[in-house]
Amino acid sequence: MEYVFSDRVSNLKPSAIREIFKYAADPEVVSLSAGNPSPDAFPVEAITEISERIFRENPISVLQYSVTEGYTPLRNHLKEYMKKYHNTGNDSDDILITTGAQQIMDLCTKALVNEGEVVICEAPSFIGSLNTFRSYNAKLVGVTVEPDGMSMTELEEKLKANPNAKFIYTIPNFQNPSGVTMSLEKRRRMYELARQYGVLILEDNPYGDLRYSGENLPNVKSFDTDGMVIYAGSFSKVISPGMRVAYTIAPKEIFQKLVVCKQGNDVHTNIWSQRVCDEFLTKYDFNAHLQHLRDIYTKKARFCMELLDKYCAPNITYHRIDGGLFIWCDLPEHVDMPAFCKKAVLNKVCVVPGNAFLTDETEECHSFRINFSTPTDEQLEKGIKILGELAKDL
Ligand SMILES: Cc1ncc(COP(=O)(O)O)c(C=O)c1O
């Protein structure tokens, strides 16, 4: 049989970096390439207790079909929580529970972007979102990420040059992959530019609660008096990614379209997971749990940066982080970064080549991303030591 795929997917090619991940399947390879929460970070006892209680008291309530918008108490509690702690969401917004934040990117693109229209992204940016935008044949336009967030001069140029831009996709806190946090000044400027050019903002914030140093900054959505911002939050990095529960706070008119799009995607998000998240949020000390996660990751992040200083300086430089799960490392400009990453994996340590996160993967790039939340301390030390040794030979 000769299969003929849709124009939409026939353009999608497996990424060159998969080559490297093939080697990472070897159990001897230290993987610094994932982005999973640490095994110590899961509230296993609470999740077990809540699930047992639900199954004892009312099993059918989580085994039956449910509503597309999401479990109503969870939506209400999240509305309150996000308003109280993050001044996020107002009367003209509504909240939709989704199957991971990944689905928010999908629904927003489906609802807002025609083929060939532009999505402005940070360069580098999260590969999962970029691939979703690509799958709708959106044109990706990258804006350079600087140490305090994307360049606002470049953003304005790109907005001027692309009147068919539909939204600006941004990860303002501890960005994946660069680790960069956008300054308050840039958050405000981005909002102003979005308003001036009539382009929406999709604010993706899965790591905002994982700050290890410095002051929390307001969400861009907290400035939103004009219905310009769609906010994406997720329980993946603070409860469990396997449960697939996330939420979007969006202007009501957009919310309604997202609901219709979601009906066609998966009808509703797993109701059992939603119930567990709701009880964990309301009947347990969620803020104490977040503090516990910050304690775990602060230690790991510091340890990882100490290892980079000890084994890799001055050949590999990196950007110090205030939160999140990733560190972006730079090789000297003369070094062939993809060849370095390949050599690393052959020497049993896997990192992600930086060009995988670019809107144009073929652009020259001298950086790679490492993750410190998944490996044990021993694995981190082993992996970073190998990177340092390889870097000495550059
Ligand atoms: C920036 C960013 N957005 C979205 C996601 C997807 O998260 P979820 O598990 O909620 O789909 C991730 C996952 O790593 C991410 O890093």
Features:
394 residues, Aspartate Aminotransferase, domain 1, Aspartate Aminotransferase, domain 2, four-stranded antiparallel β-sheet, PyrdxlP-dep_Trfase
Describe what you observe in this structure.
With 394 residues, the chain is an alpha/beta fold. The chain has 2 domains: 7-43 and 288-392, Aspartate Aminotransferase, domain 1; 64-283, 3-Layer(aba) Sandwich (Aspartate Aminotransferase, domain 2). It is 43% helix and 16% strand. The protein is globular. The structure holds pyridoxal-5'-phosphate (PLP). The site of pyridoxal-5'-phosphate has 15 residues, from helix 6 and helix 7.
What is the topology?
Elements: H1 7-10, H2 18-24, E1 30-31, H3 44-57, H4 60-63, H5 72-86, E2 93-98, H6 100-112, E3 118-123, H7 127-135, E4 139-146, E5 149-150, H8 152-161, E6 165-170, H9 184-197, E7 200-204, E8 229-234, E9 246-251, H10 252-266, H11 271-283, H12 286-312, E10 317-318, E11 326-330, H13 337-346, E12 349-350, E13 352-353, E14 367-371, H14 377-392
Parallel strand pairs: 1-12, 3-4, 3-6, 6-7, 7-8
Antiparallel strand pairs: 2-9, 4-5, 8-9, 10-11, 11-14, 13-14
Bound molecules: pyridoxal-5'-phosphate.
Radius of gyration: 21 Å
Order of helices and strands: HHEHHHEHEHEEHEHEEEHHHEEHEEEH
Q: How big a fraction of the residues is strand?
A: 15-25%
Give the domain tally. Answer: 2
Cofactor: pyridoxal 5'-phosphate
Family: Belongs to the class-I pyridoxal-phosphate-dependent aminotransferase family.
Organism: Ruminococcus difficilis
Pfam families: Aminotran_1_2
